[in-house]
Amino acid sequence: MSQTPIRARLSRRCIPGPCLVLLALFSTAPCGAADAPRAAAAGAVASAAPLASDAGVEILAAGGNAADAAVAVALALAVVHPQAGNLGGGGFAVVRMGGEVAALDFRETAPAAATHDMFLDATGTPRPDASLVGGLAVGVPGSPAGLHELHRRFGRLPWQQVVAPAVRLAEGFTVTERLATELAAERELLTRFSATAAVWAPAGSPIGAGSTVRLPRLAASLRDYGARGPSALTSGPAASAIAAAATASGGVLTVQDIGGYRPVWRDPLRFRAFGWDVASMPLPSSGGIILAETCGLLERLRWSTHPAGSPERLHLLAEAWRRAFADRFLLGDPATTLAGPEQLLAAPWLDARAAGIDRERATPSTRVQPWSHARPESTETTHLSVVDGAGDAVAITTTLNGSFGSGVLVPELQILLNNEMDDFATSPGRPNLYGLIQGEANAVGPGKRMLSSMSPTVAWRGRDVLALGSPGGSRIPTATVQVLLAVLVDGATIRDAVARPRIHHQWQPDELLAEESLDGATRVALGERGHRVTLKPRLGEVHAVRRVAEGRVESAPDLRGPGAGGVYPSPGHSPSARQGTRLE
Ligand code: GLY
Questions:
Q1: Strand locations in 226-377 (E)
Q2: What is the torsional sign of CA 46, 492, 322, 102?
Q3: Of 1.10.10.10, 1.10.246.130, 1.10.3230.20, 3.30.300.30, which CATH number belongs to 269-379+472-548?
Q4: What residue segments make up the domains of the chain, in order of their start?
């Protein structure tokens, strides 16, 4: 992949005060190798890291489709965005390709030796940090098999070509301000394990912005993965090294767990909302159900008749979420869940839920059943979206759970391992470390998938196709649905939709989070309706792309990140197509 693609590179820098968006003009360089396939007319990418978005644009320019580009971005994120991008974690993809709509579950599973009470001490008390730091926190990684499976079913370019940008990045890349800030914030975790410290804090303190990081063992692992597929990481010496790293720090992960992991294709959670078709992630993510329940309630409440951003709208949104998150208490792995879309999205249930919403006053969460549950999951996850010129779209959300996962790095592979076990109800039926209560449906069990909130989503109406999603634990579905609603209901551009101030409510704790950018009068009006408003600098980080019409694509990475977007225009694209890519 040495050619220079024609591309619009959308790079952004945040400075104190308002974020500036800089648009680098289209290159006029020749487009790719003369013999490169040319099926992609145009495409757009949005992700959390400029180098990762570049990898996606490079693959689109080489004739790759949305699936090829999405996998290349995900693998690049595993190198340059190690706080969340991963080969040692898992994720979900929602895909609309060639008329097919599909959902891929490559969520981690609990190891076979996991037990219901593995995070409790002999007195039944939760052991501090056991599900967050070190080997016991590690779920069986799903990303190596999952990303390969996505490409196997929907990709067009050779696998090795899709992996190549990540290999190149692992050979050397420059640390961004964002990565340096997050490394510094996690200094304690990163220096707790010597193998992790050797890579990310080699001189005792985390690597700073502008430094070049070289990860030769990760590059070799990726090269082998490109040559042999998932078995390069899930069997033989690689699997032994992963299991050894986890067990050396107290874990129970085995080579059998790693080799036995299988991603699962699931029926996406599909619904109609405001005249659009929407597909999002089903269980074991709660995300799709929360999106669908929210939209179903808002349609019943005639939400669209209120002005955008009005206190009336925000109040109704918060009340819808209060109920959707209460219902989340019942959810878990598809095999153990106590409810699903059949119950929670049934018209009589939505009618009853909507009828219980007071348009003027917040309902105390203690009066919304089922009570309990809903601790915020860890916030470090990452999302990427790709749409190609054919209108095919892929949304992937992937995670190690906490920032840099369990902190355990496999020295032979330079891969960080997740701490996804903490997404289980580690102490069902009693307050956890955060003082909240979780449901038995999401209790730890061997082979189970832990409940997630990740909500990769694709929506379409005619030729208009949108792909989006967010990191942020329990804030994922609320951030995602606000961007979705801005487009579906208000006809906003994706840039406007992503930029709008956000709010969040998750039933318990009973507080309404609002971004600091939400204007003061609206905050006061929400307080007068009975909401306890707490300000946050940011809620979620939505990376969205859209094919607005034939030959016209847009990328809207979230300035809160800051993320980065890129577009690949068709050869001979029109000026209006260029305009369509502009971030302002
Ligand atoms: N670890 C965050 C989530 O899966 O929702």
A1: 264-266, 269-273, 276-280
A2: negative
A3: 1.10.246.130
A4: 4-266+381-442, 269-379+472-548
Q: Enter the pTM of the model.
A: 0.89
Contact in structure between 340 and 333 (CB atoms under 8 Å): no
284 preceded by cis ω (within 30°)? yes
Q: What 3-state class would DSSP assign to 506?
A: coil
- Within 10 Å of residue 27's Cβ, how many Cβ atoms? 13
Sequence letter at residue 194? S
Tens digits of residue pLDDT in 290-343:
999 999 999 999 999 999 999 999 999 999 999 999 998 889 999 999 899 999
pLDDT at residue number 429:
59
- Give me the residues paired with residue 449 across strands: 109
Local structure of 266: helix, strand or coil: strand
Atom of ligand 1 nearest to the CA of 451: 4
583 lines ligand 1 (CB under 6 A): no
CB of residue 453 inside a 6 A radius of ligand 1: yes
Q: Which tens digit of pLDDT belongs to each residue from 508-561?
A: 889 999 999 999 999 999 999 999 999 999 999 999 999 998 878 999 999 898
Find out whether the beta carbon of 380 lies less than 6 Å from any atom of ligand 1.
no
For a mutational test of ligand 1's pocket, the pick from 108, 453, 506, i.e. the residue with the most ligand atoms closer than 8 A to its C-beta, is 453
**285 CA distance to ligand 1 middle (Å):** 8
In short, whether 327's Cβ falls inside 6 Å of ligand 1 is no
Cα separations in angstroms, 229 against 233, 390, 423, 461, 504: 8, 27, 28, 36, 40
Residue 291: name the closest of 434, 102, 94 by CA: 94
